[in-house]
Amino acid sequence: MLHTPRGGAGNGTAAAGRRLMSIGSVLNVLREEFPEVTISKIRFLESEGLVEPQRTPSGYRKFTPEDVERLGYVLRMQRDHYLPLKVIREQLDAAERGEPVPPPSVGPQRESGDGEQPDGTEERTVARVGRAALLAAVEADEAQLEEWESYGLISPFDDGSYDAEAITVAALVVELGRFGIEPRHLRAMKAAADREAALVDQVVAPLRRHRNPQTRAHAEARAQELAGLTGKLHAALVHGALGVRPR
Predict the structure, then answer these.
(1) Which tens digits make up the pLDDT trace of 22-72?
(2) Same structural domain, 85 and 131
(3) In angstroms, rounded to a whole number, what is the distance separating the alpha carbons of residues 46 and 136?
(4) Is this model's pTM higher than 0.70 or not?
């Protein structure tokens, strides 16, 4: 059963005796399970109403353990089930009302109009964000976003929105920029990522084309697993080439 009380600004008195955490501490906790999460992603989820941390008189965010649990749930539902934020928010609201929350189906699925799964390759159901929300989440401007797009680091959908994962990419590009690494320097990394994705897709493509919905769901789970392994291998190779130990 999901236990994710909001525990935010409206519960200051009740939370006074509990251990409150800074956003940096929350980031360290979440990164044990979600290595790619960033402070910008946490701020974005707050802006979307998924969590409501308390604020100190000076404006600093303070999170309760329940806030951290909610964030972990949101990130898990996005990573493992590709649920849109709207659906995740509805689940959390239902849990707060004491209503049962049905477990999500394994893997991303898209139903046809008659409620049955369509044959053939499915389009993943992904959380999307608008241009303004993306810029606000990473504190960037239009010129920066246009530069990222010109180098293929981030690409919008036909309707101009972005996959929520674009927030993670943009935040990392911003952080690398602080070290003098410009978007043009990242073209090789993007090309390598595309090759890795093509390799994973080659492995799971036969499963994705299967008529059985469970088999197609298994394909997405397998793709997630392979993506994680290739990412770890890439990181290990970079650490080895630099002669440094991973933190």
Answers:
(1) 999 999 999 988 888 888 889 989 988 899 999 999 889 999 999 999 999
(2) no
(3) 12
(4) no
Domain hosting residue 203, numbered range: 183-247
* 157 Cβ neighbours under 8 A, 6+ residues apart: 128, 163
Indicate the number of domains in the chain: 3
For residue 125, give the DSSP letter. Answer: -
Angle at 134 between CA 128 and CA 136, to 5 degrees: 140
Q: What is the rounded CA–CA span in Å between residue 14 and residue 8?
A: 10
Q: What percentage of the chain's residues is helix, strand, coil (to nearest 5)?
A: 55, 5, 40
Secondary structure class of 63 (helix, strand, coil) = strand
The per-residue pLDDT for range 176-222, each reduced to its tens digit, is 998 999 999 999 999 988 998 899 888 888 887 877 877 777 787 88
CA distance 74 to 204: 26
